[in-house]
Design goal:
By secondary structure, the protein is an alpha/beta fold. The protein has helices at about 20-25, 30-35, 55-60, 80-85, 130-140, 160-175, 190-195, 215-230, 230-240, 245-260, and strands spanning about 45-50, 70-75, 95-100, 115-120, 140-155, 200-210, 265-275. Strands 3-2-1-4-5-7-6 form a seven-stranded mixed β-sheet, with helices on both faces.
């Protein structure tokens, strides 16, 4: 007799890992540069859940705005949650909690717990964005807010061949794990509608991330050189057949050229959505 094989539910993935270079770039994220679009919607007593919080620098930044409420950051990565906890002692952040959790496996929180659920650079790594948003909707209170900010495109000038190749490899690496990858954030609002949010109750917009000074190019370029020389990114490019070792060195060389180019700059399109339950 034939038996039906049921595939296991998808799990959250983070293809880039949590190397020193990745944590360094994520630790530069703050409420002001990554969540300003949400601030006009917040009230001091709100409770907020940050899904995919990483090292928690944005998460902790909400404390000053929600000083009468509570902020919870979750991430499936045990090491990065340990980093977040050690970096934010409870005596300084009394209304802040960090815990491990996977939105695609189901949150441990009860229905209608939070006033706000926040995603930042997380959806593009998830194999099932709509399922994640449905789970976010479940834990939102009536009238609560789903807020999301995700990168759609990465733009470099000069557009050296190695930088274009890096974008291509990064996108393919993300998609190899079943995630939507780059060029998908422009559909955030459509996914939210599929998850049960009303399009008429959404604010859809966009922002940018720009690095143009020599100091910014040094910092951002060296982070990418470090990623390319790490097993989590460069090693994965090679193991997936996306690049050869020589190809990695060509990318590294072009990042170093970009750092020193006086006309060099980087701009990323950040798609932003606030949807009310």
């Amino acid at each position: 007799m034939a038996t039906n094989v049921v595939d296991p539910p998808p799990k959250s993935t983070y293809s880039q890992g949590h190397s020193e270079e990745v944590i360094a770039s994520h630790s530069a994220r703050t409420v002001s540069n990554s969540a300003a679009f949400l601030l006009p919607h917040l009230l001091p007593h709100f409770s907020l859940l940050d899904i995919g919080c990483g090292p928690g620098t944005i998460t902790s930044g909400f404390c000053q705005y929600l000083h009468q409420g509570h902020i919870t950051g979750i991430d499936p990565g045990e090491s990065v949650i340990a980093h977040a906890i050690s970096s934010h002692p409870s005596d300084k952040f009394s209304n802040l909690t960090f815990e491990t959790g996977d939105v695609l496996e189901g949150l441990k929180h009860e229905d209608e717990t939070f006033d706000v659920v926040f995603f930042h650079q997380t959806i593009l790594h998830l194999p099932d964005p709509v399922k994640a948003m449905r789970e976010a909707k479940r834990v939102l209170k009536p009238g609560g807010l789903l807020a999301m900010r995700e990168t759609d495109t990465l733009n470099w000038y000069p557009d050296f061949p190695g930088l274009s190749k890096y974008n291509e490899c990064l996108d393919k690496m993300l998609r190899s794990a079943g995630a939507p990858g780059l060029f998908s954030a422009r559909g955030l609002h459509a996914w939210a509608r599929q998850a049960g949010f009303d399009r008429k109750q959404m604010v859809v917009g966009a922002g940018t991330t720009v690095y143009s000074t020599h100091e910014e190019r040094q910092w951002w370029g060296k982070i990418h050189v470090g990623r390319l020389r790490s097993e989590a990114v460069g090693g994965k490019f090679v193991s997936l057949g996306l690049s050869s070792e020589d190809g990695l060195e060509e990318m590294v060389g072009d990042f170093e050229r970009w750092i020193e180019d006086g006309d060099g700059w980087y701009a990323a399109l950040q798609c932003e959505v606030v949807a009310r339950k």
